[in-house]
Amino acid sequence: MEKSIPDIVVGRLPRYLRALEYMLRKGIKTTSSQELGDSIGISAAQIRKDLSQFGEFGKQGTGYSVRFLVDQLQSILHVNQPWDLVLVGVGDLGTALATYQGFVNRGFRIVLAFDNDPAKTGKIIGDVTILGMDDIEVKVAESGAKIAMLTVPASAAQEVAESLIKGGIRAILNYAPMQLSLPADIHVEYIDPITKLQHMTYYLD
Amino acid sequence: MEKSIPDIVVGRLPRYLRALEYMLRKGIKTTSSQELGDSIGISAAQIRKDLSQFGEFGKQGTGYSVRFLVDQLQSILHVNQPWDLVLVGVGDLGTALATYQGFVNRGFRIVLAFDNDPAKTGKIIGDVTILGMDDIEVKVAESGAKIAMLTVPASAAQEVAESLIKGGIRAILNYAPMQLSLPADIHVEYIDPITKLQHMTYYLD
DNA sequence: TAGATTGTTAATCGATTAACAATC
DNA sequence: TAGATTGTTAATCGATTAACAATC
Which band of pLDDT confidence, cut at 50, 70 and 90, is reported for residue A52? Predict the structure, then answer.
């Protein structure tokens, strides 16, 4: 069996990719683990170690081709292909996400949006028409989407997440301030400004 | 010198607090490290170890008083007092944050909002009037706020962050998809859906 | 070539878990 | 009391860093 990559390493790859894409736009052709590390506050040794989990991407003496490493990281992270997203909950935050151009630029496209408010269904947000929550499983399954963004109230998050999984969703970006209890093979990431603020206030007087 | 608490431990405390506040609302009077751990997917041993960094909050045989532990954690995290926030960037995301009730409920109050678009200045968002970016340092300093939320484009984030710090800001919740380079005594937390999505796509086919 | 930088190994450091005496 | 659960120590596990031979 292949050795599995630590999740903490995987979590750093998008940060490497972002910094490298920035270099690419700036026209920087090659970089070193030292330079890349300096730009994102990670040690050169750690970057080399992380990358070595996936292969050999550099050249002794000269470092890494930015373009090549971007391509490799995109491939490793499976973002060398477009991904369809489902958005559930079209409140202020859901609306902001639906109209955010950053997703499309990185290959993430919202293909379905749901809200349980009848006043919202039928309206167009971003590129899609808001649908009611009826038959959400079926509609998600038909779309084939594997990733959902959840921007519903905490009280609804668990139930909605379970419906999404029945519809074939395998990864959830959860904006609801609520720990989801889901099967181990479902990938969940949390975005929660309150816990981040409370983390920082610890260090303030 | 007092031993310092690992940042990774501090980062878990808001999650403990959230789960405990939920129990409090449910009317649950006491809990155990086991029960609390099960609810958020953390081992009982780790919860006891983390809490032991700050004192002794439980009783052998019976566990923890939920109310007491909530009070203690709020005090440890300094969220037993209100905090003023500055919001910079009133686009879709900034608007969503300005109107989000979750902040006020947890003691975080937006007292200033800035945007560089003249069409927006003077408008009211949430409880505050949108101001232009002129003299942002002075206005922030006058407010006395120590925490800012940054929802400006990546290209502006570094410069704005530096102005905020000159105005006395000591902690920044950065929504701009951009690594900030700031003095070590400034606390920065990042919220970035793209990197979270890219983390998850690694595990998808 | 000489200098620079990789990929990798070994050493260090830090975090998590297991175990259990203390005790409510 | 008997059972449950804490706080803490020691053991384990995993992640980071330092160092350097290989080599571009």
Answer: very high
